[in-house]
Amino acid sequence: MLVCTTIVETGLDISNANTLIVERADNFGLSQLYQLRGRVGRGRERAYAYFLYPPERPLTETAHERLSTISSQTELGAGMAVAMKDLEIRGAGNLLGGEQSGHIAGVGFDMYVRMVSEAVATFRGEADEQPPEIKVELPVDAHIPHDYIEHERLRLEAYKRIADAVSAEELENVHEELKDRYGVPPEPVEMLFEAARFRNEVRQTGVREVTAQGAMIRFAPVDLPESAQLRLKRLYPKSIYKPQLDTMLIPRPTTAKIGGKPLRDREILVWAQTVISAIVSGDISSAAKAAQ
Question: Which of 157, 185, 203 is the last residue of a domain?
Fold first, then answer.
């Protein structure tokens, strides 16, 4: 007889052990119970696992679900069913918040929602007819606060609808719907719509990336004729154009030439749109605005 803690769940292998007794099983997670049960029955003899809990204390709903699941899933290959039930009990985690592990903060909400949509479409075998992806990584505080849309599923749905809107009319419809359902959108939500409008306008020019790289803003791909290159140097003297990479780098804009702070949010979106219109599209009025 071996008396020990849950350390055995980490991989103890005693092939002739056929009986397991777990005290206060109502305090363990479903994955822990599954791992503990797997310590017995590793040989030829039939194994038994007893999960005990005090009869004088009422079980919580979660504990009852865990014990019911582990007692019913006894066949070979039941691990997947146990894992799905564990996911159902504990939830999928905070998919859109800062607590999410990995690099979601670097990916961005919009990109993340698109990646999830693409993964689901691939799993279903659906053809991808989405418009070209636009990568926008600028200092813009654009998100849906928890106190505006509390339910995570509804927030995810709102992100997806905004990301899928490819025209000004579609964006306006989504905006009006959110306003009608949840009230006047706060500033971060308005910035999310501003970023979506910017992305749709940029898509029409053929530019696919507008990203901040240190002290520069990168625009790519851009194929500038000689006249546009001269205009770029005249309007943004410290800019760099790399024809081999179809990329132009422009110093990050500030509120003032000396001692100014870097532009953020709506101001940097307007600045980036002016750059694309003046340099890439060759719009005269935008070029005059940039020269001011």
Answer: 203
